Amino acid sequence: MKKIEKAVLLSALLFPGSGHVFLKCYRVGTALIITALVASYFLIYGVIHQALVLADKIIYGEIQPDLSTILALVSHQSTSAEFQSVNTATMVLLVVWLVGLVDVYRVGRNQYRRAITEH
């Protein structure tokens, strides 16, 4: 397996920026990793917060513990303004992942071409 293929697989399957680190592009890799970690933090925090709010409503009897009621409430919450940070974090994470994937392919291809012309 070529180095470029390994880098693309690392970025696609492991975490954005890991392929850059594998190709020794530490600055770009670190920037992608930090951005993805921050977006992941806000995504996970928002989802857990919404789940805890929903669990409290079930515990205090405000809503019935029935699947259709919970699904309706979750779909209503996902369109509310307070869930906007989760949507934004999701979009940032997806964009960072795609940009990292395309860029690691570009960087790997350039390194491969340079290695061929040097030999």
What are the salient characteristics of this protein?
119 residues, mainly alpha, 0% strand, rod-shaped
Task: Describe the 3D structure.
With 119 residues, the protein is mostly helical. The protein has one domain (3-118). The protein has five helices and no strands. Helix 1 (3-14) runs antiparallel to helix 5 (84-118) and helix 3 (26-59) packs antiparallel against helix 5. The protein is rod-shaped and about 70 Å long. The mean pLDDT is 91.
Q: Can you give me a brief rundown of this structure?
A:
The protein is an all-alpha fold.
* Chain oligomer state: single chain
Q: Between the first and last Cα atoms, what is the distance in angstroms?
A: 20 Å
Please tell me the overall pLDDT.
91
Strand content: under 5%
Which structural category do the helix and sheet elements fall into? Answer: mainly alpha
Helix and strand pattern: HHHHH
- Tally of helical segments: 5
The biggest sheet amounts to: none
> What gross morphology would you assign?
rod-shaped
* Helix content range: over 70%
Spatial extent as radius of gyration: 20 Å
When the domains are counted, the total is 1
Number of strands: 0
Uncertain regions spanning at least 5 consecutive residues: none
